[in-house]
């Protein structure tokens, strides 16, 4: 102090002694001119009040006397008064707080009138302490001040400013609401409407807000506005891309930066005020950031002019923008996924429709319709005209149906990779011209010109004749259908090494927007004018597939109204075709019957029926429609090695009307019969390879052929030969030479007999063949001896290779697919060992692809042979199997993802699901964040580094980044996919090992799962962000605790569901140097409980400062809590601790007892002073308890979440907590707090939120003093006092004192040398069993040298002798001496 | 400011000089102690009974005169005297015992 400027001494000087700086300014006030007069004349009561005021470290102001003259202390000046200091001192309070006098004046008047204190919680005041009216919140109490005679003449106000808490809570509420959308997935519009509603609910922080989204052209579109009406000049619907003229600067947010805008000028003339009296003067534009790309848009936030734009406000606006951006991201990603999923589903639907429509089993019933129909037509030819016409209708439609089924089957084959084309060299021009000619009559009858221009090409093109017919016929049929005048033209040319076939018409053409879908399956152009509305929409799709089967391409170009041209290009030669599919040129024949349905169908479109007498269905062999032979021509197979004999027999039998085939020996006969059994076999006995008798035996041994009648011819006469033949199983026997009539009679008799006899067998065969399921018969050894055509369709194995002995060729390979092989082996064992059963197994189609079949089987007895056979069916359940697999994979992935608490867990869980699903060797995921940094890896098996990955895998993952997302990519050893991850793009690779096929089904499944995963990751990320925000804000409300020394506190929210809660801790430094300790627990969870908690905490704090009596504080808190909804039944522990003596006075409102752990390990519960929870009974006195915290004892206060567990008494938890404290006897108190929280946490985290407060007595000693030797004595005095509090034996204390003294003396010496007057720090902390001492200076350690400084060297020796461990750490900034000794 | 230390010169009946110290001895006041020792020639008894603290700076002064002094020290100072080795060079008597104890100095 500078005594020279001090006014005259006397009592007045003492009045202001409580605070040096404010006291000086108060002393400088011209008190003579105030109603109070000179301080020397002040009454004792005023002097005392001023002294209390100035000595207090808590913000207070007071008003005294007629004009309510203003006084305040340093804390009030700092927190509230601001720029008004020191002007305000000594002035009438009504001037000082003119702007708030409405509120303050009436309250002061009440206090003066009634003598009762007032209480205000978080009152909003606009203070001009920083040069502008500032929104601030204060919790304060006005209490009366009495003069010496006891009259109320003034008032004292204790204030605690809560601006930060109130503003934080308000912002937190908005952020919580933004994050609390119950519907996880919405459209972008819904997201913006929702966020808009939430922003609109906080007009204090956001008087208005505008959300703009960037459009593709760079302009920005207003997507949402709050506070501003649509059409307001400050809220234009569209902002130009850049440059002047825009109301808001879109350029800066577009670059990812934010911009502060002064709201001056025309558009801002009439801005809304929000909750305030005046409109905002500034606005902040922040970008809606997008991971790894330009922002989505930006948020313009009108700023509350009554709050500074500090880090907190800016952070709030940015977090808000972050929420909006996350919402937009989620919505857009969802929409993208949705589109993708729909596309996949559409593909799937098309496939399913396709498969379900194939109905290849139509063929058998169709055949059974068409052949009798043929007979009927022949029978009625020339008969009843009406019947004949109706039969013709049936016939034509039968042909049409057959054509459709065949087309579908072609697709099915192509789809399944089963199309087995046989390419033969052909003269493309000739073949095409011939096909075209079939259509000539139809085209000309339609009144169109038909031009066929097909000159020889000079080179051969390899064609599958059957497939090529379909190509040309479909195109011609299509042209005719859509052309009403003009011409249809077919041309072939050679062009640049390719053969080009063009089919063009002058028809209605195709609109440009339909062109892309022209070749799409099942796609029909709606409302097109055509000759017929019939059509399945698959003709052109099939054409393209078939052209591609030939290695060619097809293109279409068209002008609506002018015509369409299809151009097919086919390579010459066979180089592009698989060698094993090439066959020799077959005999050129007329276009097969396949053309018939096309032409028939086309003719039906044309006006007018064909003439009724026109020949139909002319047979190429010219036999004509009538026959003298058997009504239904029986088929006879002739087997003879003699060509003359063979020809004779054929001529004879054909002449009699039999459909006859001839083969040269028994083996050929057997093969032919197995493929297609005839009605009768006429066979010579003597033949090479397989003779007639052996043939009969082989036929009879095979159930499928056992019933085929055989007539044996032999040159050997005699009874024996005849008997031999009949014994072998022949039906009849004829000895050469024989009369033609006899042969024909025997043949006729046998055919008729066989027809009678074979009726049942044929019926059975027809039935079996009409089954849509694959049918098979196994003999006793498990060999498959009979199958139907569906079996061949499903598995690719035909009757020609029967029997199939186990292991059947359709079993999955034991080496490459051991699992599937094992499944089939087990199923086979079941089949052989049981009478009936069913199973589902994977089998391998002849062409190698995987088929899943559902099998049903039963044992039966063969009535002919008496042997036990197994009859079974296979149903193709591949589609079902994969659908179920998809569903269950999705379901289990969903479960895994729902269990995940954070992104890494979600991703790891998903990878392990994928690994299990594909039985992959491993799955690895790399997240590329777009910065170019090494991607972050997640893997199922180990956690490798990016560099540690095999180079090939790194390349794969890198390459995936270039792929479109959600599109699987398969390689030799695995498959991968790219998907969106909240932190970038995620490349995922499944390592499937060698030679594992990755089928189309696998691709679909992977795409679906990856889409699902991407969505789930986005969702988890959003929840994670909300959780972090909630936690940060809760901790902000509880802190920043200016924690007194010796204390440690922890707060942990309940882990599942993670929510803020109502638990709190608090320490309050009281004016007399004692410390108030509060731990409380409000009922409930969530924002409401947190709000109640905030109010109770503030109230309890203020009450303790006013009256440091725990019991009375809780009684006052009872009254306060009664008025706060949700505060009733809160439990509170309230204590007042004297840190000097360890004396603790406390009272508990229904709170679990504190635990005091003594240095000897015994514990004591603070179970005195207990009463009911808050506000249950008002006005009931509360008891208090007292205890002394002994030296080196630890006090633990907590909320019930720490110790309460289901199905366990509370005492068990308390004991566990006590043990944890005992074990941490030698740990620093802050570390101990961490240990206790960790040790008591249940496996899945705390169920309830937990507040914990620890105090160890005495608090650590911390001193800082200038490096001067005169400081040694005071430092020792302080240390000695602290050691006394630690309750140590005198000699121990003396030793510590000496060691500390030496360390301090050294520090002072360094200080003298290097940095005179620099401070030296000393810190001493005691735990139960040890004492830790640190002395740090800012000089350099001096290595003791014997001659120069014997006594300094001695100092170190002393330190080492007195303490158990001494560490000296010299450093450039100073030297630290760390000492440690056991004390118990 | 120096640490408070009172030094009183006295003489035993046998003529041996006695210096009685009271207070604390540290680097801030060793000069006073050194001065007192330097101005007192011959054999010398230094009575530290009323000394509550003695650090290495103080010990250095005593070491300089180790060959001609005897010490009377309270039990509290024993570890310092022993550890530093001074007790090996100069006789040390516990306060309240022996021929030079405080009780017999009158």
TrEMBL record, chain A:
Annotated keywords: Kinase, Phosphoprotein, Transferase, Two-component regulatory system
Modification sites for 4-aspartylphosphate: 684
Residues covered by the Histidine kinase domain: 357-574
Annotated catalysed reactions: ATP + protein L-histidine = ADP + protein N-phospho-L-histidine
Domain Response regulatory: 635-751
UniProt subcellular location: Cell membrane
EC id: 2.7.13.3
Keyword Electron transport appears in the UniProt entry: no
Principal localisation: membrane
SMART domains: HATPase_c, HisKA, PAS, PP2C_SIG, REC
Domain PAS: 767-802
Ranges for region Disordered: 606-631
Annotated InterPro entries: CheY-like_superfamily, HATPase_C_sf, HATPase_dom, His_kinase_dom, HisK_dim/P_dom, HisK_dim/P_sf, PAS, PAS-like_dom_sf
PANTHER family reported in the protein's UniProt record: HYBRID SIGNAL TRANSDUCTION HISTIDINE KINASE C, TWO-COMPONENT HISTIDINE KINASE
Protein name: histidine kinase
Species in which this protein is naturally found: Streptomyces lichenis
From TrEMBL, chain B:
Position of the signal peptide: none
Residue span(s) of domain STAS: 14-62
Pfam families assigned: STAS
Top-level taxon of the source organism: Bacteria
Cited InterPro entries: STAS_dom (IPR002645), STAS_dom_sf (IPR036513)
The protein's name: STAS domain-containing protein
Annotated organism of origin: Streptomyces lichenis
Lineage summary: Bacteria, Bacillati, Actinomycetota, Actinomycetes, Kitasatosporales
């Amino acid at each position: 102090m500078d005594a020279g400027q001090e006014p005259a001494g006397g009592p007045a000087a003492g009045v202001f002694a409580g605070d040096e700086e404010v006291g000086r300014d108060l002393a400088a006030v011209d008190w003579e001119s105030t109603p109070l007069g000179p301080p020397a004349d002040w009454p004792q009561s005023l002097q005392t009040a001023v002294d209390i005021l100035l000595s207090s470290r808590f913000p207070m102001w007071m008003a005294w006397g007629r004009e309510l003259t203003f006084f305040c202390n340093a804390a009030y000046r700092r927190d509230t008064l601001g720029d008004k200091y020191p002007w305000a001192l000594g002035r009438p309070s009504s001037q000082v707080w003119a702007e708030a006098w409405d509120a303050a004046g009436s309250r002061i008047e009440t206090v003066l009138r009634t003598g009762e204190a007032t209480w205000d919680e978080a009152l909003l005041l606009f203070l001009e302490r920083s040069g502008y009216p500032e929104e601030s919140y204060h919790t304060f109490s006005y209490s009366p001040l009495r003069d010496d005679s006891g009259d109320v003449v003034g008032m004292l106000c204790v204030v605690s400013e809560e601006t930060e808490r109130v503003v934080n809570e308000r912002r937190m509420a908005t952020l919580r609401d933004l994050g609390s959308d119950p519907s996880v997935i919405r459209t972008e519009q819904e997201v913006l409407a929702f966020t808009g509603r939430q922003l609109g609910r906080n007009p204090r922080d956001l008087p208005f807000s505008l959300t703009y989204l960037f459009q593709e052209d760079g302009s920005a579109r207003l997507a949402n506005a709050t506070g501003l009406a649509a059409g307001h000049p400050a809220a234009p619907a569209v902002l130009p891309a850049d440059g002047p003229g825009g109301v808001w600067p879109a350029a800066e947010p577009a670059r990812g930066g934010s911009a502060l805008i002064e709201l001056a000028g025309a558009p801002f003339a009439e801005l809304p005020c929000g909750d305030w009296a005046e409109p905002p003067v500034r606005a902040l534009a922040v970008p809606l950031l997008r991971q790894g790309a330009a922002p989505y848009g930006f948020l313009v936030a009108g700023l509350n002019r009554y709050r500074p734009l500090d880090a907190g406000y800016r952070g709030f606006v940015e977090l808000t923008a972050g929420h909006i951006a996350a919402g937009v991201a989620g919505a857009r990603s969802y929409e993208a996924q949705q589109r993708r999923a729909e596309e996949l589903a559409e593909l799937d639907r098309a496939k399913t429709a396709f498969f379900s429509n194939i109905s290849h089993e139509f063929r058998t019933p169709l055949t059974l319709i068409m052949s009798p129909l043929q007979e009927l037509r022949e029978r009625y030819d020339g008969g009843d005209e009406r019947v004949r016409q109706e039969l013709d209708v049936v016939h034509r439609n039968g042909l049409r149906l057959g054509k459709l089924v065949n087309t579908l089957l072609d697709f099915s084959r192509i789809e399944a990779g089963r199309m087995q084309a046989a390419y033969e060299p052909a003269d493309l021009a000739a073949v095409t011209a011939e096909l075209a000619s079939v259509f000539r009559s139809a085209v000309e009858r339609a009144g169109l010109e038909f031009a066929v221009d097909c000159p020889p090409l000079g080179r051969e093109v390899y064609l599958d004749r059957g497939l090529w017919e379909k190509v040309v016929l479909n195109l011609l049929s299509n042209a005719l259908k859509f052309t009403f005048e003009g011409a249809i033209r077919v041309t072939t040319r050679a062009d640049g090494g390719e053969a080009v076939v063009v089919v063009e018409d002058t028809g209605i053409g195709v609109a440009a927007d339909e062109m892309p879908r022209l070749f799409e399956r099942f796609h029909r152009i709606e409302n097109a004018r055509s000759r017929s509305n019939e059509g399945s929409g698959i003709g052109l799709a099939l054409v393209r597939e078939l052209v591609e089967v030939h290695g060619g391409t097809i293109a279409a170009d068209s002008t609506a109204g002018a015509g369409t041209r299809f151009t097919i290009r086919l390579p010459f030669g066979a180089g592009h075709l698989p060698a094993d599919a090439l066959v020799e040129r077959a005999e050129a024949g007329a276009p097969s019957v396949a053309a018939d349905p096309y032409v028939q169908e086309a003719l039906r479109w044309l006006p007018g029926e064909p003439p009724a007498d026109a020949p139909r269905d002319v047979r190429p062999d010219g036999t004509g429609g009538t026959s003298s032979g058997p009504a239904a021509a029986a088929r006879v197979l002739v087997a003879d090695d003699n060509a003359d004999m063979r020809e004779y027999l054929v001529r004879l039998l054909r002449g009699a009307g039999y459909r006859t085939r001839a083969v040269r020996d028994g083996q050929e006969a057997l093969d032919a019969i197995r493929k297609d059994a005839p009605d009768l076999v006429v066979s010579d006995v003597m033949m090479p390879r397989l003779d007639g008798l052996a043939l009969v035996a082989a036929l009879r041994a095979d159930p499928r052929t056992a019933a085929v009648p055989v007539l044996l011819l032999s040159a050997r006469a005699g009874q024996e030969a005849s008997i031999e033949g009949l014994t072998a199983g022949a039906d009849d026997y004829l000895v050469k030479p024989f009369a033609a009539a006899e042969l024909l009679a025997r043949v006729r008799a046998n055919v008729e007999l066989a027809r009678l006899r074979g009726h049942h067998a044929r019926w059975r065969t027809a039935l079996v063949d009409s089954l849509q399921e694959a049918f098979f018969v196994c003999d006793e050894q498990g060999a498959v001896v009979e199958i139907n055509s569906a079996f061949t369709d499903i598995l690719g194995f035909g009757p020609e290779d029967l029997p199939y002995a186990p292991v059947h060729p359709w079993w999955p390979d034991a080496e490459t697919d051991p699992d599937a092989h094992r499944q089939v082996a087990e199923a086979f064992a079941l089949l052989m060992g049981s009478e009936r059963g069913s199973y589902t197994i994977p089998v391998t189609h002849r062409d190698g692809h995987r088929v899943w079949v559902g099998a049903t089987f039963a044992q039966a007895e063969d009535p002919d042979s008496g042997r036990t056979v197994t009859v079974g069916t296979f149903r193709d359940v591949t589609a079902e199997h994969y659908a179920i697999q998809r569903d269950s994979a999705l379901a289990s992935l969903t479960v895994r993802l729902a269990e995940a608490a954070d992104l890494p867990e979600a991703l790891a869980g998903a990878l392990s699901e994928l690994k299990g699903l594909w039985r992959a060797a491993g799955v690895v995921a790399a997240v590329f964040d777009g910065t170019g940094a090494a991607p972050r890896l997640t893997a199922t098996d180990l956690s490798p580094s990016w560099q540690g990955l095999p180079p090939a895998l790194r390349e794969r993952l890198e390459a995936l980044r270039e792929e479109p997302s959600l599109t699987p990519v398969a390689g030799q050893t695995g498959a991968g996919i790219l998907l969106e991850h909240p932190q970038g793009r995620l490349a995922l690779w499944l390592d499937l090992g060698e030679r594992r096929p990755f089928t189309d089904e696998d691709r679909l499944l992977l795409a679906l799962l990856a889409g699902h995963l991407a969505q789930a990751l986005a969702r988890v990320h959003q929840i994670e962000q909300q959780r972090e925000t909630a936690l940060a804000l809760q901790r902000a409300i509880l802190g920043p605790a200016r924690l007194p020394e010796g204390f440690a506190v922890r707060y942990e929210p309940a882990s599942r569901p993670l929510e803020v809660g109502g638990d709190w801790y608090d320490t309050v430094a009281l004016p007399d140097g004692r410390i108030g300790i509060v731990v409380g627990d409000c009922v409930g969870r969530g924002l409401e409980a947190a709000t109640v908690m905030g109010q109770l905490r503030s109230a309890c704090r203020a009450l303790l400062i006013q009256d440091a009596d725990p019991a009375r504080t809780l009684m006052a808190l009872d009254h306060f809590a009664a008025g706060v909804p949700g505060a009733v039944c809160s439990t509170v522990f309230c204590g007042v601790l004297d840190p000097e003596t360890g004396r603790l006075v406390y009272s508990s409102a229904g709170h679990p007892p504190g635990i005091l752990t003594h240095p000897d390990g015994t514990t004591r519960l603070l179970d005195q002073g207990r009463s009911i929870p808050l506000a249950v009974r008002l006005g009931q006195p509360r008891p208090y308890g007292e205890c002394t915290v002994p030296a080196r004892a630890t006090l633990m206060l907590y909320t019930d979440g720490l110790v309460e567990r289901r199905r366990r008494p509370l005492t068990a938890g308390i004991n566990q907590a006590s043990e944890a404290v005992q074990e941490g006897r030698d740990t620093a108190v802050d570390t101990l707090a961490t240990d206790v929280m960790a040790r008591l946490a249940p496996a899945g985290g705390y169920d309830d939120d937990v507040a914990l407060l620890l105090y160890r007595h005495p608090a650590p000693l911390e001193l800082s003093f200038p490096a001067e030797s005169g400081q040694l004595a005071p430092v020792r005095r302080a240390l000695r006092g602290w050691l006394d509090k630690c309750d140590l034996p005198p000699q121990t204390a003396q030793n510590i004192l000496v060691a500390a003294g030496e360390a301090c003396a050294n520090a002072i010496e360094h200080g003298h040398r290097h940095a005179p007057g620099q401070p030296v720090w000393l810190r001493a902390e005691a735990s139960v069993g040890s004492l830790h001492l640190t002395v740090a200076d800012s000089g350099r350690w001096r290595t003791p040298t014997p001659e120069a400084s014997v006594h300094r060297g001695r100092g170190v020796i002393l330190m080492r002798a007195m303490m158990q461990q001494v560490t000296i750490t010299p450093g450039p900034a100073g030297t630290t001496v760390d000492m440690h000794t056991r004390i118990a | 400011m120096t640490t408070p230390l009172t030094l009183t010169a006295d003489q035993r009946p046998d003529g041996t000089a006695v210096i009685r110290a009271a207070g604390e001895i540290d680097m801030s006041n060793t000069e006073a102690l050194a001065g007192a020792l330097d101005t007192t020639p011959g054999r010398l008894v230094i009575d530290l009974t009323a000394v509550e603290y003695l650090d290495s700076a103080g010990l250095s002064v005593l070491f300089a005169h180790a060959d001609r002094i005897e010490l009377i020290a309270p039990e509290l100072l024993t570890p310092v005297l022993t550890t530093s080795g001074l007790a090996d060079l100069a006789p040390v008597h516990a306060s309240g015992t022996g021929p030079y104890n405080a009780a017999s100095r009158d």
